[in-house]
Amino acid sequence: MTAPSLDDERRTRLLAGAAVTLRELSEVLTPLGERFAAAGHELYLVGGTVRDAILGRLGTDLDFTTDAHPERVQKLLSGWADNQWDTGIEFGTISATKAGQQVEITTYRADAYDRVSRNPVVQFGTKLEDDLVRRDFTVNAMAVRIGADGSQDFVDPLGGMDALLAGVLDTPSAPENSFNDDPLRMLRAARFVSQLGFTLHERVHQAIVDMAPQIERITAERVRAELDKLILGEFPIDGMNVMCETGLADFVLPEVPQMKLEIDEHHQHKDVYWHSLTVLKQAVDLEDGDPDLVLRWAALLHDIGKPDTKRNEPGGGVSFHHHEVVGAKMVRKRMRALKYSKQMVDDVSQLVFLHLRFHGYGKGQWTDSAVRRYVTDAGPLLPRLHKLVRADCTTRNKRRAAALQATYDDIEERIARLAEQEDLARVRPDLDGNAIMELLGIPAGPDVGRAWKYLKELRLDRGPLSRDEAEAELLSWWATQQG
Question: Which CATH number fits domain 6-166: 3.30.70.120, 3.30.460.10, 3.40.800.20, 3.30.465.10?
Answer without folding.
Answer: 3.30.460.10
